[in-house]
Design brief:
By secondary structure, the protein is an alpha/beta fold. 39% of the residues lie in helices and 17% in strands. The protein contains 13 helices and 13 strands. α7 links the parallel β8 and β9. α10 packs across α12.
Length: 368
């Protein structure tokens, strides 16, 4: 099928945590015979911080962040069999969604792909004029980055014909163990941009742990932390490019995952970092959230903490040997059960079934 995908960025992970997710899924879908065009705006300095060149599995069209250019790429939805509008493009989100619905052919499969469903649902509850309330009847599917049963139920309550979580996963060819790099040497490393609904949790789980263990070395990667006061034992790296993630995950004794407020509250929303770290064989410590055992077994494949004190306790009791054992177990579990090949197969089946359904709806009934 010809897929038109309107998202934040495929080429850059700068202020764009969904980049790895898009790359893993679309690469696999292309391998299954789908033809993909990815439309991304030239916005938020993402094009100046590209991680990859345009990949072989998708044609990438970068358009100026202007209304005319946006309308130009929306017009191309008319040529697609599947039209996907992802959440969080960051500019012209409403216009893109309404535009591709209006422009796409009646037989095309129309999808809203939500990469931050808990936040989107909260916006919908608070705003009766939210664009998704108007768009929902025209959508064939809502696919989400995660969220499990709570997100499915909420979207169905808002009128979604069908909502299906497509979880983050691992691309073993991209994220895997590599030799350590001295600049990433630390006892605990955390990678995440500074965002309003994350900062308090970073303080509670990461900076508080650093305060409990002043003799240990902590690394903070991600954008936006430059003006934030940090403990003396916390070193800020700035933006860490995707090509550096393996070394970032492999080198420290352990790495930390911290969910954003909305995702922690809903649960069933493992971040991309969880799978990247596990794929690299890292010993992962995560904040507690419902559904973690669906992906990794607490105590043997991941360490779970309810606050910074428990993070510090895990770290204080962690030997290099135990860290390697936990990391190896996590890598084995994720590689066996949670790869983008599995996610791609799931999406491929969804698209093919949906095409059959829409084809049946479009065929005229015979007259007896």
């Amino acid at each position: 099928m010809k897929i038109a995908f309107y998202g934040s960025s495929l080429l850059s992970s700068y202020w764009n945590g969904a980049a790895t997710y898009y790359r893993g899924l679309l690469s696999d879908l292309a391998g299954r015979g789908h033809s993909i065009t990815f439309y991304e705006p030239d916005a938020f300095d993402r094009q100046q911080h590209r991680d990859i060149d345009p990949p072989p599995y998708a044609e990438v069209k970068v358009y100026p962040a202007t209304p005319d250019a946006m309308r130009g790429v929306v017009a191309e939805a008319a040529r697609a069999d599947v039209v996907v509008k992802a959440s969080g493009v960051g500019i012209f989100d409403e216009e893109l969604l309404e535009g591709v619905i209006d422009t796409s052919r009646p037989e095309a499969i129309r999808i809203f792909w939500d990469v931050d469903a808990p936040a989107t649902l909260a916006e919908m509850r608070a705003n009766a004029a939210h664009v998704l309330h108007r768009a929902m009847p025209a959508l064939d599917l809502v696919l989400t980055y995660g969220g499990g049963p709570p997100v499915v139920a909420a979207y169905e309550d808002f009128g979604a014909r069908r909502c299906i979580p497509i979880y983050n996963a691992l691309d073993p060819a991209t994220h895997h163990p590599v030799p350590p790099e001295p600049r990433f040497a630390a006892d605990l490393a955390f990678l995440g941009n500074r965002l309003p609904d994350r900062e308090a949790r970073v303080e509670a789980f990461f900076l508080d742990a650093a305060a409990h263990l002043p003799e240990r070395r902590f690394l903070l990667g991600g954008s936006g932390w430059e003006g934030r006061g940090l403990p003396a034992n916390v070193h800020h790296l700035g933006h860490v490019y995707t090509r550096e993630h393996n070394a970032f995950n492999t080198t420290p004794l352990a790495v930390l995952n911290i969910a954003r407020d909305s995702m922690a509250e809903v649960g069933f929303s493992p971040a991309t970092r969880v799978f990247e770290a596990a794929g690299a064989g890292a010993c992962l410590i995560t904040d507690a959230w419902e559904g973690i055992e669906r992906f990794l077994e607490p105590g043997t494949e991941v360490l779970v903490a309810r606050d910074g004190r428990e993070v510090a306790e895990h770290l204080a009791g962690l030997t290099p040997e135990r860290a390697r054992t936990i990391g190896a177990a996590a890598r084995a579990r994720i590689t066996a059960e949670h790869t983008y090949a599995r996610r791609g197969a799931e999406v491929d089946a969804i698209l093919r079934n949906e095409a059959v359904r829409k084809g049946a709806l479009m065929r005229p009934r015979s007259v007896a």
